[in-house]
Amino acid sequence: MAVVGRPRRSCLAVPGSSVKMLGKAQGLPADQVFLDLEDAVAPLAKADARKNVVAALNEGDWAGKTRAVRVNDLTTPWTYRDVIDVVEGAGANLDCVMLPKVQDAVQVQWLDLTLTQLEKTLGLQVGRIGIEAQIENAAGLVNVDAIAASPRVETIVFGPADFMASINMRSLAVGGLIPDYPGDPYHYILMRILMAARMHDKQAIDGPFLQIRDVDAFREAAKRSAALGFDGKWVLHPGQIDAANEVYSPDQADYDHAELILDAYEHYTSAAGGMLGAVMLGDEMIDEASRKMALVIAAKGRAAGMRRTSTFTPPG
Ligand code: GLV
Ligand code: MG
């Protein structure tokens, strides 16, 4: 079914150590920003990055964007301080905490409990800060069903760079194809993540594409996960944003067709329409399963602010 959630077609990575980029990101048309305290920030810059991120969340104009902060993973000494400083400092202006390199459900439960403590202390509604769980190693993928089950988890995010490194996968282009491998090396991983996400009605987000100057190659990589049903993809550069927003929205013809199917099926199944469960719409046979597929596309189109350009007129 269509997963309703915060918009995340394009998820822009913004290094927390760069005040300049924290400012610039606010004017870009990404659905989501995630202010990074993890791999884009050098160890010696982590403490200042926390302060930059808190200031940017409180003082910046993020209107219309989903606001996330990526903390460091739980094998480091930084995670608890990241969470406490950012949520205490800017919890009211934050939508989600992203936890990278999640290995099992216990790690997500730790974050859930810690956020609950902070929300209670700060007088915030308990549960209002969501979790984004990044799957970046074999343990995370093997345990992804349990990770996705946590009620606070809003989305499962693929981290291809760390994932490749962790399983010794050979690749020249992260997010691209491996020259010596005939298929798509990410297919299984993406589908595994998608199954866990959908089982628990969560969003599934594809990770970064590192060749930031090659927007055509980015678009091809994005189309692969969009075709499977992923809801969005990370963008590392402003030049990738429009392509992501476009690829993870239905095109106008598909959106119009989905709305047409919904109207037509509602008509034909009604008493006035003959109470028909399977019916021809033009050259296409539609039934209840067609309605379900149309609902997914219509929900994505509506969420992207699309407007239909045709209407259904009952025959007769
Ligand atoms: C993202 O975090 C990645 O490792 O690809
Ligand atoms: Mg990573």
Overview of the structural elements:
The protein has 316 residues and is α/β, with parallel strands linked by helices. It folds into two domains: 10-247, Alpha-Beta Barrel (TIM Barrel), CATH 3.20.20.60; 252-303. Helices cover 43% and strands 15% of the residues. It contains twelve helices and ten strands. It has an eight-stranded parallel beta barrel, surrounded by five helices. Helix 2 links the parallel strand 2 (32-36) and strand 3. Helix 2 (46-59) runs parallel beside helix 3 and helix 3 packs parallel to helix 4. The mean pLDDT is 94. It binds glyoxylic acid and magnesium ion. Glyoxylic acid binds at residues 100, 134, 136, 159-162, 207-208.
Features:
binds glyoxylic acid; TIM Barrel; globular; 316 residues; Citrate_lyase_beta/mcl1/mcl2; binds magnesium ion; alpha/beta; lyase activity; eight-stranded parallel beta barrel
How are the SSEs placed, and which strands pair?
Layout: E1 10-15, H1 19-24, E2 32-36, H2 46-59, E3 66-70, H3 79-90, E4 96-99, H4 105-122, E5 130-135, H5 138-142, H6 144-149, E6 153-158, H7 160-167, H8 187-199, E7 203-206, H9 215-228, E8 232-235, H10 241-247, H11 252-269, E9 279-281, E10 284-286, H12 288-303
Parallel strand pairs: 1-2, 1-8, 2-3, 3-4, 4-5, 5-6, 6-7, 7-8
Antiparallel strand pairs: 9-10
Helix pairs in contact: 2-3, 3-4, 11-12
GO molecular function: lyase activity; magnesium ion binding
Protein name: CoA ester lyase
Keywords: Lyase, Magnesium, Metal-binding
